[in-house]
Amino acid sequence: MNITVRKFDALIIGAGGAGLRAALQLSNADARVAVVSKVFPTRSHTVAAQGGVNAALANVLPDSWHWHMFDTIKGSDYLGDQDAIEYMCRAAPKVVYELEHFGVPFSRLDNGTIYQRAFGGQSQNFGQDQAARTCAAADRTGHAILHSLYQQNLRARTHFFDEYFAVDLIKDDQGYVLGVVAFEILTGKPIVIEAKTTLIATGGAGQIFRTNTNALSNTGDGMAMALRAGVPLEDMEFVQFHPTGIAGRGMLITEGARGEGGFLINGEGERFMERYAPKVKDLASRDVVSRAIAVEIREGRGCGRNKDHALLDLRHLGADTIMKKLPGIREMTLTFLGLDPIEQPIPVFPTCHYSMGGIPTNRDGQVVVPVKDTPEDPVPGLYAAGEAACVSVHGANRLGGNSLLDILVFGRAAANHILEYLGENPHHRALPQDSVDRALERLARWDREGEGEAVEPLRRELRKVMEDHCGVFRTAEVMREGVAKLQTLRERIDQAVIRDHTQTFNTARVEALELENLWDCAIATMHSALGREESRGAHSRVDFTERDDERWLKHSLYSLQDDALDYKPVRTQPLTVESFPPKKRVY
Ligand SMILES: Cc1cc2nc3c(=O)[nH]c(=O)nc-3n(C[C@H](O)[C@H](O)[C@H](O)COP(=O)(O)OP(=O)(O)OC[C@H]3O[C@@H](n4cnc5c(N)ncnc54)[C@H](O)[C@@H]3O)c2cc1C
Question: Domains in the chain, ordered, with CATH?
Fold first, then answer.
């Protein structure tokens, strides 16, 4: 087959905040940069981020990066790598001011500085009083950031492959990653994008769960590509369930709603968070609030006819605050529930929100794999950043407002390292045809038509298996059943067909490839969760209810070959300050 080949210095897969921040840094340094995105760039999930981005600017209350660092480590249930966390928290004010200069229209305080709101898990003085650290553009912060970054990239002449689907990485026998095989979704035409460096910025894998807050496009493609290229995935058992998804629908009500003073009530009208987190109540860390809601419902104190949700009450905030600070939330509940939060509380339930795990990287964004005797070795030419990556700054539980920060800080850091790498590796290496052929074969497999199961029902089943067998509370027995169900599903996926090739825009083929990626991420999550016999952060085992630092203060690494689970130590040594040793986590 005659395939178009395009060559670049740097290829970025994904046009969310992580991809675009990296691309801008590279284009501004005159590198030849291509960004591939399966959706139009400004439709990437970053656009949906509501609440804001954390930085210790101290515009509203006193603050310091060191307190931010402590909160992040505590929030991570001590599984986060402290060097990366220090790096991120120190860089935060700088990246936020950069955004301001790129044109992000942040909300303002009366004195003209950036508005900051309180979010869960934030404190002053290492756990004393509530802090206000989240910089916000009303409740549409992600929208403002993504659009500004996209416009800046257009100005910097970044090359965009819009609505192209990346299938698999190209790797030579020396282990160098040299780009990707992709196809244009509109025409189905394959293309080889060759590059000296490749950055995976494909976002999270929230779609492995039936109820989630994520965009339909968050199918973990980059994570699955890495797995297939022999890179293990780190800490996949840690999936964040956001406490306030709209019940039954999954759409997100930002934590900012509680940050502005909203609170949760149960079926008896009680503010139950007072019992679970006496000090900070509704602004406890997300894993804590999600579990509290699940327990209230399980013990019969849910709301509604079926007692199957909690209520988020904003009424006391008043119309003025709701219209000014949370206009997007009001619009959403009006549109999807016909409910006005000024007059009625919102039905909520924990919903899958964020992948803490992902492709293992160091704080330069280099993808690193453990090798015997040395703790980690970079895969030459391969980088990852954003939700697809695991640096790990979020450990076992991410704090609200820290993900937008993560994508900006590490998108930028990865780009800086790529520039160094390009200086040392100025030439393209020979293209390994066998690797290209393997990706093309995977693509061609979804040309099959005729009798057989269709893709969509299989996808629905997969998501249901994850929800039923790997949800907020987990046990070995239930997860073992889950593994067996996933394995049977895999055999059926391998036999599945595309019913209708005439479908416009090749959406059927995209969905089939996504299903394979979802399965890879799902099995990684299930096996990693089964392996970890303790409860830490978002991972709650009914059969191992305590955190066990002696056995489990380590990151998991799952490889597709033989379903192998390996572990690597947590980096507990920060860069310049003293380490924060594990403590009991109370809020
Ligand atoms: C509803 C919601 C609200 C949130 N609110 C906040 C908040 O207030 N504060 C905060 O800090 N965090 C928030 N988060 C989390 C945060 O927004 C995300 O973690 C972050 O934006 C992810 O950015 P990203 O660049 O890694 O990926 P994304 O923005 O998800 O972008 C992924 C990109 O990869 C591309 N892609 C994927 N697969 C392929 C493929 N196979 N081929 C080609 N392209 C591909 C997509 O087209 C897309 O461009 C929120 C998340 C959600 C879902």
Answer: 4-238+356-433 (3.50.50.60), 246-352 (3.90.700.10), 434-544 (1.20.58.100)
